[in-house]
Structures are given as C-alpha cells and as structure tokens.
Amino acid sequence: MAARILLIEDEQRIAELIARGLQNAGFEVDFVSEGNRGLEMMQARDYDLIILDLMLPDMDGLRVLEKLRNRKLCPPILILSALGAVEDRVKGLERGADDYLSKPFSFNELLARVRALLRRGQPVRERLQVADLVMDVTRRKVSRGGQPIELAPKEFSILEFLMRNAGRPLTRTAIVEHVWEMDYDGLTNIVDVYIRHLRSKIDDRWPHKLIRTVRGIGYMIDAGEKPAGKPAGT
C-alpha cells in the first residue's frame, strides 16, 4: 500500500506542484491550506508523513506542530518554510519537527527527504506477494509458482516498486524517479525497455499476466480476478 502524506500548505500553486509530484512518485496525498483543517484531517485519517508550512493564514505553523506532537501517535513531520534562517530551522527542529526544508527548494531534494523520513518512520515489508509471484526483499529472491526467477538489480527495484503499489497505476515518471532517483526525460524509453525484460521473465511463460499497461499513465502489477496458472510448457 502506498504511503499516505498530508500536506499543509497555503500557497495553492506550490501545494499543487508538490502534491502532483508526490503522486507521480507513487504516494497518496491530501493537501489543505489551513492549520485547523490539517488537524481535523489528522483526526479523520491515518497518515505516514506530514509536510507542514509554517506561515499559515489561520494559525502559526509552530502551533500546529505543537498540537500534532501532543497527539499520542504522530507520524514524522517535515517543515517546509520560507523562513530559512538558522534560528528558524533550530526552532522548528527543537519544537519536534523531524526535518526542515527551506523555500525555494528542489523537488528532488524534497522527494529524497520524504523517502528518508518514511524509511525511518515505518516498517518496510520484507515479503511481497501478488498472486503466485513472491519477492523476498531481504534475500533479494523472486519466484513465481515456486520457480526461482533471476533479475538484474534495476529489474528487481522496478518489480519491488510495482509490488509495493500492487493494484495502483504508476507513471513512468514515478518509476524513473524511484528507481534511478533522477528527473524523468520524456524522450527516454528506459522504463518500457525494463518492463519488457520483466515481462519476459515473470509473465511470458504464464497464461495469467500480472504486469499491465495502463493506457496514458504507465504500468501496474495486479493479480486480477483469475488465479495464476502453471508456466506454459510445464
């Protein structure tokens, strides 16, 4: 299941850019423009990470931070603020923020910090399964129907990303940014090439295909309604 992020940011254009970028990277994102609304959202849903602006129209962001930290359970909090002086960063971290990023910022840096906080803040599943396709993340082993499948490192990383987001379409942008940690060049077909490699190894010999092309979006892995059969020719 994709990590769920709450973005509390009152600048509409910035909020939309961040939300769209994080969604393209495979996250679920809710965003609100007021501190009180953010606190209400925290009561209504469980989040894996909060991105908090300090300059909000209804209340001081540090006050929101304090209220969040007073909760029994609180996810990691990343402050995003135009207040970039050393004393501002120190104040935010001392009040309980897990990280602090000053505006203007690079989205790639924001994404890297988000991933780092999520790795720190939640356990990562070590065994993934979609139908009869099984991945042991720790031992870096993959099998389908009990038959081992050898994958190159990038193939393994792409398949892991797909399996952690099973049933959710992932854009080529999200796959490149997650696996290669770089900006997506719309002219490259690197994702399509690697998906073809993966299909040749985990789908071609089976009648039931798991990796699906989502027209106009990208790819996803999904067990579907039919049980996976034995490999063709066995």
Number of domains: 2
CATH topology of the largest domain: Rossmann fold
Cα radius of gyration in angstroms = 20 Å
CATH class of the largest domain: Alpha Beta
Amount of beta strand:
15-25%
Mean model confidence by pLDDT: 84
In sequence order, what are the helices and strands, one letter per element?
A: EHEHEHEHEHEEEEHEHHEE
CATH superfamily of the largest domain: Response regulator
Name the structural class. alpha/beta
Low-confidence blocks of residues: 226-234
Estimate percent helicity.
25-40%
Q: What separation lies between the terminal Cα atoms?
A: 33 Å
Overall, the morphology is elongated
How would a textbook summarize the main sheet? 5 strands, parallel
CATH architectural arrangement of the largest domain: 3-Layer(aba) Sandwich
According to DSSP, the number of beta strands is 12
Strand order of the largest sheet: 2-1-3-4-5
Number of discrete helical segments: 8
Q: Would you mind describing this structure in some detail?
A:
The chain is an alpha/beta fold and 234 residues long. The protein folds into two domains: 4-121, Response regulator (Rossmann fold, 3-Layer(aba) Sandwich), CATH 3.40.50; 127-221, Arc Repressor Mutant, subunit A, CATH 1.10.10. It is 38% helix and 21% strand. The strands form three sheets. A five-stranded parallel β-sheet has the order 2-1-3-4-5, with helices on both faces. It starts with a strand and ends in a 13-residue tail after the last strand.
